[in-house]
Design goal:
By secondary structure, this protein is α/β, with parallel strands linked by helices. It has a single domain, classed as NAD(P)-binding Rossmann-like Domain (Rossmann fold, 3-Layer(aba) Sandwich), CATH 3.40.50.720. It is 48% helix and 13% strand. The chain is built from nine helices and seven strands. The protein has a seven-stranded parallel sheet, sandwiched between helices. InterPro entries: NAD(P)-bd_dom_sf (IPR036291), Sc_DH/Rdtase_CS (IPR020904), SDR_fam (IPR002347). GO terms for molecular function: oxidoreductase activity. Keywords: NADP, Oxidoreductase.
């Protein structure tokens, strides 16, 4: 089974903080010695990240706003592919989380909901679509390529206070299964990363960081467990409490989707 260990060049979207930043730095230590491209909209953070961690010279940076207008985003991704023709893996770690109380509908900010949906889901679909021509081309040349999505344990069992966030991650979860089945024949391997509650800046906006810090998985431990799964070539990589949730509710779903895909192809070809 191909794994991240086979990659020569990895782009991590949303790597200025949290899980994305930690995984990007961990990938520098892979035996294959890949080029790792950190990517986000905050250029000053990217510059600091590269300046502090580039002893090998293999850490690069690209400024990208995932909420750019569609054609602008497509042009930016084409520039990335043209600059890094060896790019064979993309990890999508950008995301935001907002709390909404639907028992008080007058307080629900629909602009904020739509921004969360665009950041966590729509922009990911766009970027995947724009990266795929390059990744499929490499795959058809016999080189394994990878898409790493980041959902959440909350995609399996939601936390009602962050209902829209959970819905966006459920969408990523479902999309990841479908793409994993569709793209396997193109030698493009889709791996879903499924974090539990992890030490992160994600919760700063709502002012819940201190309370949640009593129960989250440390970023160091999370990164270790997740990298082990990525190196093994697991088709999905849960960690912490998400392991039990996935086993209880999702066991066998990827295999079932594979069978359904086969049945659908058989029906449409007759």
């Amino acid at each position: 089974m191909p794994s991240i260990s086979d990659s020569k060049c990895v782009l991590v979207v949303g790597s200025t903080a949290g899980i994305g930043r930690a995984l990007a730095l961990a990938m520098l230590d892979l035996p294959s010695q890949p080029t790792v491209i950190v990517c986000g909209r905050r250029k000053e953070r990217l510059d600091e990240l590269v300046a502090s961690n580039n002893a090998t010279g293999r850490l690069k940076s690209v400024t990208l706003d995932v909420l750019s207008e569609r054609n602008t985003l497509k042009s930016s991704i084409e520039d990335i592919v043209n600059t890094y023709s060896d790019l064979d893996a993309v990890l999508f770690s950008s995301g935001i989380q907002r709390a909404f109380d639907f028992t008080k509908p007058e307080t629900v900010d629909l602009d904020s909901i739509e921004c969360e949906l665009a950041t966590n889901y729509t922009s990911i679909v766009r970027m995947i679509t724009f990266f795929l021509p390059h990744l499929i081309k490499l795959g058809e040349q016999g080189r394994p390529t990878f898409l790493f999505t980041v959902s959440s344990g909350l995609s399996i069992v939601p936390s009602t206070g962050v209902a829209n966030y959970c819905a966006t991650k459920s969408a990523i979860h479902s999309l990841s299964i479908s793409l994993a089945v569709q793209l396997k024949e193109k030698n493009v391997h889709v791996v879903e990363i499924i974090p539990p509650l992890v030490e992160s800046e994600l919760h700063d906006f709502e002012g819940t960081t201190q309370r949640l810090s009593n129960s989250w998985l440390s970023l160091e431990e999370y990164t270790k467990v997740t990298m082990e799964g990525l190196v093994r070539g697991d088709p999905y990589v849960p960690a912490g409490l998400a392991v039990d949730l996935h086993k209880q509710f999702e066991e066998g779903k990827l295999e079932a989707a594979t069978k359904m895909h086969g049945h659908f192809k058989a029906m449409t070809q007759t």
